[in-house]
Amino acid sequence: MLFPYERYKTLAGSPTVYYSAGEEARARWVFQTIEKAGQALSQLLGQPMPELQIVAVAPADWSLAPRDEAGQDEYPHPYWTEATTPPSIVIPAEVDLIFGEMTQEKLAYMLYHELTLAFIEADPRPGPEEYPLWADEWQIKFAALWLSQSLDHVQGVVNKDLHEQYAEIFELEPDGKTPDTVRGFDWYEDTSPEAYLCYELLLEQFAADLLAAYSPEILPHFLSLYRQEQATLLSEDITAMLASVLGPGGEEWLEDRIYF
Hints:
This protein is α/β, with parallel strands linked by helices. Helix content is 44%, strand content 7%. The chain has helices at 24-45, 104-122, 133-152, 160-165, 193-213, 218-226, 235-246, 250-255; strands spanning 9-10, 16-19, 53-57, 79-81, 88-92. The chain has a five-stranded mixed beta sheet, with helices on one face. Helix 1 links the parallel strand 2 (16-19) and strand 3. Helix 2 crosses helix 3. It is globular and about 55 Å long.
């Protein structure tokens, strides 16, 4: 069945926000949050706001929400999909408990994450055909956390409750690194949502440490190297690119991160 857009109201302005009856205040907050973040990302990345729409889905319609793949409805959370024209940021009425206590700052961070993905997908420059998972993932987490810190005045990471809940992911192994690392983790068909969530926490800590030590302009500088015509980039290639953007001592700084 198709999503019942005819039962939804829309806000005036761009991007279009679809919302169900009684949810206008939340829809306006989402609109304002995306609008402010879009302006900040446009300035940082030198790109226009990508064309998109926002669909705030009522609980009864969640199974009908537009999505790219099966399973996106299993643990409800905001996500980006190109199953619509224009693409959509889809927002459930309630986020799954796996993501911890849902504060306004955490929901905004989730929206920033999907908006950053929209910007990355809209970048007209070519990118590598094959690359490690972390190559794109660090960019998204970095920009989303920068927005949380600059717009919402978050200190450090957003998901403080989850970092406390999963503190063991930062415990050192005999090799001096964490059990999973930003560069070592990969996605497989049997990867559990909890395992991927823990990987996202590593990336969030990486973003927080980068933002504490460097300017947010490292992202567009990295993208100028990354978004070029190239067939394959290995993890060591990405590491070298990022180290060069960080400047003198950048490689040593990266290697000193226990989760990297």
